[in-house]
Amino acid sequence: MRRIYTAWSNTDGGEITGFSSGEDRPKANNGEPIWDCVFPVWRVEAGSHEEAMAIYNIRRGFGPYKPLGESAPCPECGAPYYPEGSAQCWNCDHEG
Ligand SMILES: [Zn+2]
Predict the structure, then answer these.
(1) What is the 80 CA–ligand 1 centroid distance (Å)?
(2) What does pLDDT average to in each consecutive run of 10 residues of the chain (96 residues)?
């Protein structure tokens, strides 16, 4: 399943200040948009949060992304996924 992730900045064309799932501004715990994530810088389509973070790290020059926990077979399709991380399967709709 393909999902959209967005990198954000607090100024038009500025440094990246956040990275979120979806195309809407990321929200804080109180439900309000995060103040310094105003302008979308770029978007990426990826199968899971882990795939998106791998691309994010490459684009930011951070080196390899290490997913949280160990991979395990998806309970629905058997593809490797990270149940201790996002628990999103890159191959099917399974989340959690
Ligand atoms: Zn799956």
Answers:
(1) 8
(2) 95 92 94 94 96 96 96 98 96 94
Q: What is the pLDDT of residue 20?
A: 93
What the block records as the tokens of 31 is: 């439900």
Cα 66 to the chain's mean position, in Å? 13
Whole-number Å distance, alpha carbon 39 to ligand 1 midpoint, is 33
Residue 27 CA to ligand 1 centre (angstroms) = 27
Cβ-based neighbours of 27, under 8 Å, separated by 6 or more: 33, 34
Q: Compute CA 58 distance to the chain's CA centroid, rounded to the nearest angstrom.
A: 13
Instruction: Map tokens 């064309």 to a residue.
Output: 13
